[in-house]
């Protein structure tokens, strides 16, 4: 009843490597770090008669410590008095180590997540600051270019060297301004998460984009086939959905193969809980390395076409912020297929 040990089975002796174990010897088998925490609980059980349930490390005959689950229950007589304590030691070493590995992995994931969050915040702040701080100097440059143009003789030939340089300078300013606008859009996307409150008809957005691209399509002699009539409205802002459709469709036209007539198929259908939007072309196509870089910020894989390298990065962010995903399959010299999965 007082907690002194008077019996151990053979399994204990095989593990501990001793033929007799006193209370003092039993205590000596406990890991020092666990002894200080375990003994007050054992004394409390002896004083209150409550069961003991504790995890601690016990030293084996080889000197190694293994985690044990120690349980002790009081055995009482008919009058309810405790006559002895019956205890068990259960080896839980592998389970304990597995839990420690899980805790380590979770802590590592949490640390990585926090680091990525800090990096995203820093990137967001940089983009926001850069897009705003660059507006003033580029506006000044644009003003200087216009002032210089006003000083040119009115009879200056449009094809003269000076006039050509002035047009190149103005075009460079316009490209820079578009890049700043796109950086501002990226900054807004960094803060945008969750489903939109409105629902937008895909067919109407696609038709609007088609009308905008009609002159470009005619200049290329492109054949564009659309199949989106039966699609349900999507929980995505019209602005973001238009950006996705416009970027994918215009890219399919811009990166056409010069030796063949451009053909673009835009289709949409229900696929489980998602709406699957595919844009397939017979354009230049990409190799495996190009596909891996495709959605990075400022990634331009074809220099002969004007662009900032931000469009597909924004498309991916818009889709992921809405809870969807985008995939690409491409073959160099054959064409590409972009598949967009949007939640319904």
Descriptive report:
This protein has 344 residues and is of the alpha+beta class. The protein folds into three domains: 82 residues, Beta-Lactamase (2-Layer Sandwich), CATH 3.30.450.20; 93 residues, Helix Hairpins, CATH 1.10.287; 142 residues, 2-Layer Sandwich (Heat Shock Protein 90). Helix content is 50%, strand content 20%. It has ten helices and eight strands. The protein has a five-stranded mixed beta sheet with strand order 4-5-6-8-7, with helices on one face. A three-stranded antiparallel beta sheet has the order 1-2-3, sandwiched between helices. Strand 5 and strand 6 form a beta hairpin. The longest helix has 41 residues.
What CATH architecture of the largest domain do you see?
A: 2-Layer Sandwich
Chain-averaged pLDDT: 84
What is the global morphology? elongated
Number of strands: 8
- What would CATH call the class of the largest domain? Alpha Beta
How much is the radius of gyration in Å? Answer: 36 Å
What descriptive keywords fit this protein?
alpha+beta, Helix Hairpins, Heat Shock Protein 90, elongated
List the helices and strands and how they pair.
Blueprint: H1 10-16, H2 23-28, H3 32-48, E1 52-59, E2 65-76, E3 82-91, H4 93-133, H5 135-151, H6 161-190, H7 202-220, E4 223-227, H8 238-254, E5 263-271, E6 274-281, H9 288-293, H10 311-321, E7 325-331, E8 335-343
Helix pairs in contact: 4-6, 5-6, 6-10, 7-8, 8-10
């Amino acid at each position: 009843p007082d907690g002194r040990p008077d019996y151990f089975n053979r399994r204990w002796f095989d593990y501990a490597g001793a033929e007799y174990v006193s209370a003092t010897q039993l205590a000596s088998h406990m890991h020092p770090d666990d002894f200080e925490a375990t003994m007050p609980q054992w004394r409390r059980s002896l004083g209150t008669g409550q069961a003991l349930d504790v995890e601690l490390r016990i030293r084996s005959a080889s000197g190694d410590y293994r985690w044990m689950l120690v349980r002790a229950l009081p055995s009482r007589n008919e009058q309810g008095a405790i006559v002895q304590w019956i205890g068990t030691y259960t080896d839980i070493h592998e389970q304990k180590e597995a839990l420690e590995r899980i805790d380590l992995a979770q802590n590592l994931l949490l640390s990585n997540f926090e680091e990525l969050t800090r990096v995203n915040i820093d990137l967001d702040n940089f983009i926001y600051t850069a897009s705003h701080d660059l507006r003033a100097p580029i506006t000044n440059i644009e003003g200087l270019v216009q002032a210089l143009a006003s000083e040119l003789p009115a009879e200056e030939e449009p094809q003269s060297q000076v006039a050509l340089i002035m047009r190149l300078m103005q075009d460079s300013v316009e490209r820079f301004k578009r890049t700043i606008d796109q950086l501002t859009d990226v900054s807004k996307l960094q803060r945008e998460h969750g489903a939109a409150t409105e629902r937008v008809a895909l067919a109407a957005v696609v038709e609007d984009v088609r009308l905008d691209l009609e002159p470009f399509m005619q200049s290329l002699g492109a054949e564009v086939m659309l199949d989106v009539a039966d699609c349900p409205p999507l929980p995505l802002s019209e602005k973001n959905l238009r950006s996705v459709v416009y970027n994918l469709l215009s890219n399919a036209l811009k990166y056409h193969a010069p030796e063949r007539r451009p053909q673009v198929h835009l289709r949409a259908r229900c696929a489980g809980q998602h709406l699957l939007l595919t844009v397939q072309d017979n354009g230049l196509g990409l190799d495996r390395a190009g596909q891996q870089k495709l959605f990075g910020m400022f990634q331009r894989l074809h220099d002969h076409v004007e662009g900032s390298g931000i469009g597909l990065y924004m498309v991916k962010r818009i889709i992921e912020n809405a809870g969807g995903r985008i995939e690409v399959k491409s073959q160099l010299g054959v064409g590409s297929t972009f598949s967009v999965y949007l939640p319904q």
